Amino acid sequence: DWQMGSYIDEAVAKIREQVGDEEVILGLSGGVDSSVAAALIHRAIGDQLTCVFVDHGLLRLNEGDMVMGMFEGQLHAHVVRVDASELFLKELAGVTDPEQKRKIIGRLFVDVFKAEAEKLKAGDKGHKGAQWLAQGTIYPDVVESGGTKTKKATTIKSHHNVGGLPEQLGLKLLEPLRELFKDEVRGLGVALGLPHSMVYRHPFPGPGLGVRILGEVKKEYADLLRRADAIFIEELRNCTDPATGKTWYDLTSQAFTVFLPVKSVGVMGDGRTYDYVVALRAVQTSDFMTADWAELPYGLLKKTSSRIINEVRGINRVTYDVSSKPPATIEWE
Ligand code: XMP
Question: What DSSP line would sit under 184-240, residue for residue?
Answer without folding.
Answer: HHHHHHHHTT--HHHHTPPP--TTGGGGTB-SS--HHHHHHHHHHHHHHHHHHHH-B
